[in-house]
Amino acid sequence: MTNRPEEIPPEWEKLDLAGLSGTLMVVGPPDAGKSTLARYLFKRLCETSSGVAYLDGDPGQSTLGPPGTMTLALAETGDDSFPPKGPIWRGFVGSVSPAGHMLPVLTCAARLVGAAKQAGVQAVIYDTSGLVEPTKGGIYLKLAKIDLLRPTVLFAIKRNQELNSLVLPLRRSRRMQVVELSPPPAARRRDPSVRRAHRAAQFAHYFKNGAQLRVSWPQYAVFPAPRFDLHRLVALEDVDGFSIGLGIVTQIDRIHRQVMLHTPVASMNGVDAIRLGNVAVDPETFEDRPLSSRG
Predict the structure, then answer these.
(1) CB of 70 within 8 A of CB of 126?
(2) Which has the closest alpha carbon to 32: 151, 181, 149?
(3) Phi and psi for 60 in degrees, rounded to 5?
(4) Same domain as 211, residue 125
(5) Which of 1, 82, 196, 273 is the most buried (most CB within 10 A)?
(6) What is the rounded average pLDDT for all residues in the chain?
(7) Closest CA to 142 of 28, 5, 9
(8) What is the domain range of residue 211?
(9) What is the C-alpha to C-alpha distance for residues 123 and 178, in angstroms, rounded to an integer?
(10) DSSP conformation class of 44
(11) 128 and 173 part of one domain
(12) How far is CA 165 from CA 14, 132, 143, 217, in A?
């Protein structure tokens, strides 16, 4: 997928991206054009640089992976197509919203950026979530990401005044370059029902080739504990903590300590741990609902 010319404001086309490297973080309120900008930056950098990666950091409105995850994808040399065709790494947040799950978001972001650096990537475009409301901790989450990842450039899409408490102090800091931009003309607020439908479509696409996989959970580390619930979303992780694939719990045998998962993962080969999410997904409609910490 590529950005259409009519989506790109003239001020974006004037951006000087020559020599940019490190983590390039894109922030803004919901439906302000963050993903459009992130993909535009990705395409521009791929044209002039080698070693470019895209980090899809929105676990609710994800584009590179199923909801509940964050995905890092590397571009192949000389290829600016989207989605990127190179290697991918995926981290499991376990929720479709950063609210209440900020530590997993920070952990995933740090580990994915670390994976990019180990792979020799020169520039990572980090498309963040739209959580910016101070009352929900959005600004604190963005500041924590900045402190943790030390981006070289912060691209801030300002629709109204939502980002003032983040951008104003950063203007006075020498830690990074701050670039403030306007939303693209096509940016429109989406109704919550549209967002829910997008997640259901993403889940349906991910699980369309899934099958039933029986798992004896005592053979694996289960984080945070083996409290399985019907339809709970879980991740099957490798020894490095990255997600091999997701599963939906469809049956629970507590006597024999086994669960049946609906998953596209063919076997448990290479699985080191099972991580439980805090969201349930209907395996027929693929609509999600939140679970409390106790299910």
Answers:
(1) no
(2) 181
(3) -95, -45
(4) no
(5) 82
(6) 94
(7) 28
(8) 194-290
(9) 16
(10) H
(11) yes
(12) 26, 10, 10, 46
The pLDDT of residue 1 = 43
Report which DSSP code applies to 243. E
Q: How far apart are CA 113 and CA 125, in angstroms?
A: 10
First-residue to last-residue Cα distance in the chain: 37
**pTM score of the predicted model:** 0.94
Shared domain for 31 and 94, answered yes or no, is: yes
Domain for residue 251, yes or no? yes
Nearest to 142 by CA among 158, 125, 163: 163
Choose the final residue of a domain: 138, 157, 181: 181
Provide the domain count of the chain: 2
Closest Cα partner for 31 from 162, 171, 178? 162
The CATH number assigned to the domain holding 152 equals 3.40.50.300
The tens digit of pLDDT for each residue in 65-118 reads 999 999 999 999 888 999 999 999 999 999 999 999 999 999 999 999 999 999
Q: Is residue 275 part of a domain?
A: yes
| Residue with more model confidence, 186 or 288 | 288
pLDDT of residue 7: 78
Instruction: Categorize the per-residue pLDDT at 294 as very low, low, confident or very high, splitting at 50, 70 and 90.
Output: very low
